[in-house]
Write a structure and sequence with these properties.
324 residues; mainly alpha; 2 domains; 3-stranded antiparallel beta sheet; 6 helices; 7 strands; elongated
Length: 324
């Protein structure tokens, strides 16, 4: 919806309707137009019995600061169960993502009324599989998704990789159990659960817009598919482990390099996710600095392990290691 004209209305503090004119920016928060090219008028049609909120407004068909209204243009609508945050009597508010939407086509044959035909609604292909509720709104779903992914890629891999790289001999069998816990459960399972959660509740899954949100979605899909492959490689490496081997087999090296690449992609996507959240909702100022501090500490821990312990490749020279 980049560059589109958007009109959003909500109930204000007096029980009336505030309507703002915004410009679409894609997946991020619409920007308030400097020139509001409309005015609110009394309802031009009776409010339907099923409607919780209705409003009418007028605007010229052609304006200098927005899109022209034409019979051939595409029109969509959206609605949210959550009110904007901020001063509801002002158009300068933080808008919530819609939780239902569809398309419609105005009837331009009449100069006094507009007949709307719903061609989308709940049957629209871009509707979420599950709809957010008042007790679990979409923003809470996004936060849950983000927290799970943050744990999965900004915390757990540093610990799981450190254990596998530097502590095999020191921990014996326990290293593998801990590695599986951090990488298969905290990283793998949390990634899959988080992905399924946001997929079920999201609109416009894997859209083609070239913005940060689209990049986050597509990279997220790559990470999810790759993490499944990586977990399989891990179990194959364990199943084929030979405590008397004299060199590292290719499947172990594949597990290492897929894991390293996947880890970096996961970190990148967490960063993109934080930025994407900040475009749609209020992002606390400490979130990004905390992310970078944790990442710096994690890589510092890796440097320390390499300098003081060195990589443990569990070949025949390594003692106290065996297949689980």
């Amino acid at each position: 919806m980049k560059g589109s004209d958007i009109y959003i209305g909500w109930t204000n503090s007096t029980g009336g309707i505030t309507v703002g004119n915004y410009e679409g920016t894609g997946h991020s928060q619409p920007s308030l137009n400097s020139v509001q090219n409309h005015h609110v008028v009394p309802l031009m049609d009776p409010q339907p019995s099923w409607s919780q909120q209705s409003f009418s407004f007028c605007r010229p068909t052609t304006v200098s600061t927005g899109q022209s209204i034409t019979p051939t243009a595409g029109y969509i609508y959206g609605a949210s169960a959550s009110a904007p945050s901020g001063n509801l009597d002002s158009t300068k508010v933080s808008l919530q993502q819609h939780d239902t939407k569809g398309t419609f086509q105005p009837d331009f044959s009449s100069s006094t009324t507009t007949v709307v035909t719903n061609t989308g609604g709940s049957a629209d292909n871009d509707q979420p599989i599950l709809k957010p509720s008042a007790s679990f709104p979409f923003q809470s779903i996004v936060i849950t998704h983000g927290v799970l992914m943050f744990i999965a890629w900004a915390i757990s891999p540093f610990i799981g990789i450190y254990i596998a790289r530097y502590l095999k001999s020191a921990l014996g069998h326990t290293w593998y159990i801990l590695h599986v816990f951090f990488m298969s459960i905290l990283t793998g399972a949390a990634t899959l659960v988080s992905f399924i959660l946001i997929y079920l509740y999201s609109f416009d899954r894997f859209s083609t817009d070239g913005d940060i949100g689209s990049s986050h979605e597509k990279l997220g899909l790559v990470v999810v598919l790759a993490v499944i492959i990586q977990i399989i490689l891990g179990y194959v490496s364990n199943a084929k482990f030979d405590p008397h081997r004299e060199s590292i087999p290719w499947w172990d090296k594949a597990h290492w390099w897929v894991g390293r690449t996947l880890f970096l992609l996961g970190l990148l996507n967490v960063y993109l996710g934080i930025k994407f959240y900040g475009e749609s909702y209020h992002l606390a100022g400490w979130v990004l600095p905390m992310f970078w501090i944790i990442v710096a500490f994690g890589f510092g821990m890796m440097v320390y392990g390499q300098a003081t312990k060195g990589q443990d490749n569990h070949t025949i020279a390594t003692t106290n290691i065996s297949k689980i």
